[in-house]
Amino acid sequence: MTSETPQPAFVLVRPQMGENIGGAARAMLNFGLDKMRVVSPRDGWPNERAVAMASGAGRVLDGALLCGDTEEALRDCQFVFATTARARGLTKPVVTPERAMEMAAEKIAAGEKVAVLFGPERAGLENEDIARANAIINVPVNPEYASLNLAQCVLLTAYEWRRASSEITAERVDMAKTEWANHAEMEALQSHYEERLETAGFFYPAEKAENMKVNLRNMWSRMRLTRADVQMLHGVMRQMVRWKERGE
Known about the structure:
Layout: E1 9-13, H1 18-30, E2 36-39, H2 48-54, H3 58-62, E3 65-67, H4 70-73, E4 79-83, E5 94-95, H5 97-109, E6 114-118, H6 127-130, E7 135-137, H7 150-165, H8 183-199, H9 209-222, H10 227-247
Parallel strand pairs: 1-2, 1-6, 2-3, 4-6, 4-7, 5-7
């Protein structure tokens, strides 16, 4: 059974290999999509190879709507995208997957039903299918090798849907049972190293000492250290001093 989450329907038009249908189901569920429609699959439906390849995404196949033709698959939709890698001689807006899914999110939020057409593996969508679409999705692939596997194309589009419809953190740091060091802790670390380096005669000659200290503190300020990092670096310096003293 499919979810009630607002989302586009992914329509596989005349897919040829069950493995690709299963791979498409996996790609969809990876990114929170489960509304699949299948138009005239070559090897019939249900398809055992699709089920085997789906590997945990069987509910996408269980809820898939089997359609006799593209017109039937799109009957309840207000806006349709068609994916194709080739120019088709049809005057239509052409958008990237990123822009397409931004548009889909906007239209779905406004209450419209949106579908995305994906063609069969051998030659892609026919012009008759594309003529039913409002816009074309064109992936900016290598022009010398533009062929995308059906499941790959589904995955790429599903990923862009996830980005367009969810709050995604572009970059993060996973903290391993620690926190970022605060200014006081960094100051104590800087002072510890400065004092020990002073004792070791590192700041030489005297006329360059202050500038060397400023440069050293500037280096510390460029490092974003955790409390664990600070504790380790304190330990490193203490151990080096102990080793030196034992050597003497």
